[in-house]
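Bench notes, afternoon.
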Amino acid sequence: MADDVRWTITGNTAWSGTYDGKAAVLSELLTPLSEQLRGRSIILAQRFIAEDDLVVVEAQGRNSTKDGMRYHNAYCFVCRLRDGQLVELTEYADTQLVATALRAPR
């Protein structure tokens, strides 16, 4: 992940929005998410489409929350790479599941 990465989550949930920079992605997105999930986050990539600096990944999450709720989300990640590092990611997911299963990040 590049230091200047930009990660955007689509939709209108408390998690939706753009996280600018590696520090923000880690502290405002990934850390709060890991605090709610049981064990390590599991996302299994199922299909890839790549062209030039873009890679599209279709994936399926296999997780549960610490409260015991099943959190098996479906994802489509549109990624842009530069010099072997992730510089931009747009995440499409089941936003109803996000809103139902996860508490708002701090």
